[in-house]
Structures are given as structure tokens and as C-alpha cells.
Amino acid sequence: MLSVAPGRRIWLCTQPTDMRCSFDGLSTRVKHHLGEDPLSGHWFAFINRRQTQIKVLAFEDGGYCLWSKRLEEGQFARGPAGVVKRALCHTEFLALLDGVDIVIKRQRKRYKKVA
What we know:
By secondary structure, this protein is of the alpha+beta class.
């Protein structure tokens, strides 16, 4: 499970992101598109156009970390399209990863392995 250090924020980019980007591409997007400092220690989450993959960029002691999750079924909730970024609390972030849409408060479809 991912845990965020106290005092650090989680920012969700609400516009689609090219998932071919890695450390440098996402840190550039944080600087120029979100207007934030990628070295601040905050976490930055990006979702692709189809809303099936999420990447989280963070700067920890000594370097960047990049986490990724791809859904086999269903979609991530990106949030309202009118804003560029949205602050998430730790609970909202975990709900996003689990498929809960905070805005409309419903569980999104997820892959379940058939026994």
C-alpha cells in the first residue's frame, strides 16, 4: 500500500496524459502544465485518455519514484474536465485506485478473476 508522508499533497491532473511519458516527461508536465515543483515531494497522479491507466510521480529522498496501475476492466474517475488539477486527500486517492468515483459516489466496474 502507498502511504504519503505528512505535509505532502496529492495532485490529480484532470486532463488526459500520454502514458509513454516517464520520469522526465511527467516532471516536465508537472512544471509547465500544472504549475507545481516536481521536486517538492508532493505526489502527482496522471490518467490516460481511455482512463484505464494511472501513473503517480513523486520525488523521494534521492530521486524520483514512479508507480503505475493498469486496469483490465473499468475506468478510473478523472474528475471534472473544467479544471487542470485537483487536490486529493489520502482517502480520496485510495478510493480512486479502488475504483470509487468521489464526484458521483459510486463504485466503478473492476476486473474480477473467475474461480
